[in-house]
Amino acid sequence: MKWWRCKNPFFRKITYSRETKTLFIYNFGCNWACLICTYRIKDPCSEEGCERIPLEKILSIIKEYAENNRINQVKFLGGEPLINPDVPRIAKFARTLNLKVGIGHTNLSIMPPLEAESAVVSIKAINEELHKIYTGGFSNKQVLHNFEKCYQRGILLKTNTVFVPEFVDKDEIERIAEFVASVDERIPFHIIGYIPIPEFPWRRPTRDEILDVARIAKKYLQNVTWSLLTLKTIKYPSIRVL
User: Fold this and answer.
1) Which one, 81, 94, 171, 214, has least CB within 10 Å?
2) At 217, which helix (H) or strand (E)?
3) Beta strands in 29-185 (DSSP E)
4) CA 110 – CA 18 distance, rounded (Å)
5) Predicted confidence band at 12 (pLDDT cuts at 50, 70, 90)?
């Protein structure tokens, strides 16, 4: 099964964080085909399996954890979680239990459900031609429009982008930071150092390069962070429920 341009998305995994009292619901599939997606290197399904979790089972787990006061929020992850048609129903159900609803990461090509209170948005590029090359032919116009619309709706936004020397380079990171600041300079912005994909020519940035890019972004934004990880050092601090 391929993750990208998936026509039949489904929920494949649920994890729980006791520290943040959060249930994370993982979608299989994405509507884009990003060249630098780490799923091209390491497909979680090859290690974890990808069995479809029925909607009623998900609702049952949410209810159980909420009634036992083990969670105060539900977050959706992916792939691209917003392509899953069951997200709005689950979000609405979670709100009836007085749980917060967040989108753990999204390309924001689709608007979140009305119940969503937060979203972490990955902005690939501002230059439209670059964005199309990056994503497999998709425009960023709807993404940028949705970003402003989410802010106007009152959704708590965080952003990130992947810094790829000689592809999504420092000039493009500066454009992204400038765009985010045009919406609100207080929106947090995280710069992710590129993890090389074997079949593509771009290299991993150095620590000095990512520090330089972070300094540029800080000209526009109040809260800029960065990371320079490998597949081995990426950690997901939650335990699997299903």
Assistant:
1) 171
2) helix 207-217
3) 73-77, 100-106, 118-122, 156-163
4) 30
5) very high
Distance, first Cα to last Cα, the chain: 20
Under 8 Å CB-to-CB from 172, ≥6 apart: which residues? 125, 126, 127, 130
Q: Which amino acid is at 61?
A: I
Decide: 237 and 19 in contact? Cβ < 8 Å: yes
* DSSP assigned state of 234: -
Quick check: helix, strand or coil at residue 22?
strand
The pTM (predicted TM-score) of the whole model is 0.94
Helix (H, G, I), strand (E, B) or coil at 163: strand
Residue 18 burial by Cβ neighbours in a 10 Å radius (0-12, 13-18, 19+): exposed
Contact status, residue 126 vs residue 163, Cβ threshold 8 Å: no
DSSP class of 180:
H
Crossing angle of helices 55-67 and 87-96, in 10° steps, is 20
Q: What pLDDT does 1 receive? A: 63
DSSP 71: -
Give 96-122 pLDDT, tens digit per residue: 999 999 999 999 999 999 999 999 999
Place of tokens 């081995």: 232
pLDDT of residue 131: 98
Reduced DSSP (H G I as helix, E B as strand, rest coil) percent helix, strand, coil of the chain, to 5:
35, 25, 45
CB 31 within 8 A of CB 137: no
Strand order across the beta sheet in which 22-28 lies:
224-227, 189-193, 156-163, 118-122, 100-106, 73-77, 22-28, 10-17, 239-240
| Segment 26-45 mean pLDDT | 88
